[in-house]
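Supplementary Note 2. Why include the ligand at all?

Several targets in our set were suspected to adopt different conformations when bound, so apo predictions alone were not considered sufficient. For every target with a known small-molecule partner we therefore ran a joint prediction. The input for iron/sulfur cluster is given below.
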Amino acid sequence: MAEQTAPLFMATRRTPVATAPAGQRIYFVSLGCPKNQVDTELMLGQVEAAGHQLVHAPEGADVIVVNTCAFIDAAKEESVDTILEMAQHKTKGGKLVVTGCLAQRYADDLAKDIPEIDHILGSADFQSLAKALSPQPAFTLPSGGSKKKRALPVIQVSETPTYIYDHETPRKRIGATHSAYVKIAEGCDRPCSFCIIPKLRGPQRSRQIDDIVAEARALGRAGTREINLIAQDLTRYGWDKGVAPADRQTLAQLVRALGKVDELDWVRLHYTFPSAFDDELIDAIASEPKVVKYIDVPLQHISDPMLKRMRRGHSSRVTRELMKTLRTRIDNVVIRTTFIVGHPGETQAEFDELCEFVAESKFDRAGAFTYSVEPGTTSAMLPHRVDADVMAERQQTLMEIQRKISRDHHEAMVGKEIEVLVEGVSSESEYLLEGRWYGQAPGIDGVTYLSDGQVPAGSLVRARVTQASDYDIAATLELS
Ligand code: SF4
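The joint prediction is reproduced in token form.
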């Protein structure tokens, strides 16, 4: 569920990657969400396996690959800007390849408007990248000259994306060794009215439990301590169309299986759906020691008429009961959520109801996004659009309510001892380390600043909280 999960989604990264042996020199830019990051890592693994070099900068690269995002306007703009910028770096005879969600959604426009692009691969067609880059036999022109024939038509975009990788697919990790994303399923079958993802990523297809466990074990052996399970809707894992109920694998079964992977310390669940929790899953999360008691569940709204307009398929009663159940059944559970403000039809009264809900629910983490009109979604055709200024005001109001709550949660932690996964030396100061306790997910939540000692990145340490701020905490290492 590519719910608008705060920074995650907004966090675009240019991913210069390490040099390696001979072949074409390839530079990648990876934009968008962790699911796109995994796709980039699979492309890196693919081209490296094909003997190509991965380089740190676009200058002088034979091939530049931009893995794009197209979830909302801001992401689309950034993807187009990045492609145009990379086109400047394209060398004579070099290639510019565009992959990901913008390619899936606007292939023809991209091909027409940006002639510098050589190949456009859809969100589930990136496994053809190496073939696109393979040298092509020249052919003789009637005039006697010769010209290289393109390996693939400029555009290779599956109308219905169906591809999903497995643990044998080459994957070159980017980012910290000690924390990795594992995509357990791709695509989505839900009808949320504001969301374009099902059109970009296709129908849901889940990997098998033993395949995911094999990948998790291999990652653990390679130094990963924390795996972050991702999908468009994690809680729908196994419910693929055409799979008989009796043959379905469930997220609870997967969580239990991952709980037995000795090489891992933390298993974190992202992108769950409020109405898809059942007792089996809640018990598995509550009782598996390796599963961190952190629930990422984008709720989007609380007003019943709005949940109906958003086609979320459940009522506010379901949401409220879930919050109560999670807090009763999972000790010290940390709940992260996100909301959309300004969806067509949102009245002041509905927004006030949302503010009251956020104030009384005291979420540990909450983000608010302004609605983005996405052509091709049901919401894009709805009347009663909310004015952009009003949307921005509502976002600010909601985030101000949450800022105080977040700070209160952190102040209540002062003096407490916590376990922290060390990320490394802090960008704030060389005398500080940065890390995360289980209540802080990578890339989207605040951090824990650690003083009084130096330990390597990837260490799991005990620390005592000394200070609180709105979104971060500070703690002293307890090395004894
Ligand atoms: S359709 Fe709904 S559940 Fe699926 S990705 Fe979009 S917001 Fe998430």
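The longest strand covers residues 417-425. The chain has a mean pLDDT of 92. Comparable summaries for the other entries are listed in the accompanying table.
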